[in-house]
Amino acid sequence: MNGRPERAQTNVRLVRRAQPGTTRSRALPLTVTIVVITVFVAAVSTRATGSGATLIGPIDPPAVSVPDAPSPGSAGPSAKATSSAPRATSVALLATLSPFPTTPPLPACRYADEPAANAAYDAWQRTIVDTTSRLPKGYVPPDLVPVSRAGLSSRSTIRRIAIADLKALVKTGRKAGVRLAVESAYRSEARQRRTFEGWVRSSGEAEARRFSARPGHSEHELGTAIDFKAAGGGSPWTQAFARSRQARWLAANGPIDLCVLGLGVNGHIAFNEPASFLQAGPHVARLAPASLRHSMLQESRTRPRFGLTLGMANLLQSRRILLLVSGSAKRRPLARLLEGKISPAFPASFLWLHPDVTLFFDFGGF
Prior knowledge:
Blueprint: E1 10-16, H1 24-49, E2 53-57, E3 64-66, E4 91-97, E5 114-115, E6 133-134, E7 144-146, E8 157-159, H2 163-175, E9 180-184, H3 189-203, H4 205-211, E10 227-230, H5 239-242, H6 245-252, E11 258-262, E12 283-286, H7 289-292, H8 295-298, E13 306-309, H9 312-316, E14 320-325, H10 331-338, E15 357-362
Parallel strand pairs: 1-15, 5-6, 11-14, 14-15
Antiparallel strand pairs: 1-4, 2-3, 2-4, 7-8, 9-10, 12-13
């Protein structure tokens, strides 16, 4: 991690549906009341947080339309409102919420040398190394092969299981006129020690720990991580590489464009279940009891105990995320999510770290 992640802004859409038996004579006052209250709240929120708000509704027919609040330095807002007697009293509020001021800061990273779970060579998809979990002494993947097998000019090595995907990436890049090279791939624990100690000498240990891993704690030691650079170019740790065609191509062809998620009653997203730590990449997850009680599984002939899911890093790398929440059973998890407190015990809370999350939920779930 290069530093403390910034909190994300979250777009929220509230929807209130018409109540059965509502008469037309009562529809207009109710609509006007909701609109007046909503405009007041939006105005207070805009003044307090600087965030914009747009009212859209009712759906059939439109009853009020208020433009977005002006950006800083622009002219004052010009609001237009029209009213009618709609058949339904549905009102939607689309607002951009600023981070909650009472949200505590993220905790500082903890450093330890605890044995990593799932450290067997064939469990590489579930192996987690971080600031606290480390690989066992003498960890050397048994199937290391040269990355040159994927068409890259380098003496670096990587696990054989990654060669096919790496070869496809290199081939696709060349078709687009992008030529990649390897800065670093597999590192032994001894080499990782030299790498980390080099950063300590140049930047000090506290700073080195922000962007370099201690020996035993690096994903490079797994043999499944690669640092790319431009072919014929210098180090990828520079702004020059960040602006390069190669970097832009990797960014454009890497993450998910739009990720659509639901919210579990226990706070899971995808099958990232509550835990003391969360998996970064794709993995097989043991389903929590709350997930096993889901109606979809209750109606299934077979009762699976595991689920295949993308990891939290995969989800947070998406360009945009839509989170859909509906039903009274989601009231408590939704309220907990909106507290803005980030914890692996409530995986959905990590969405606060993403810059573009849109949350859709109805009043029945709030």
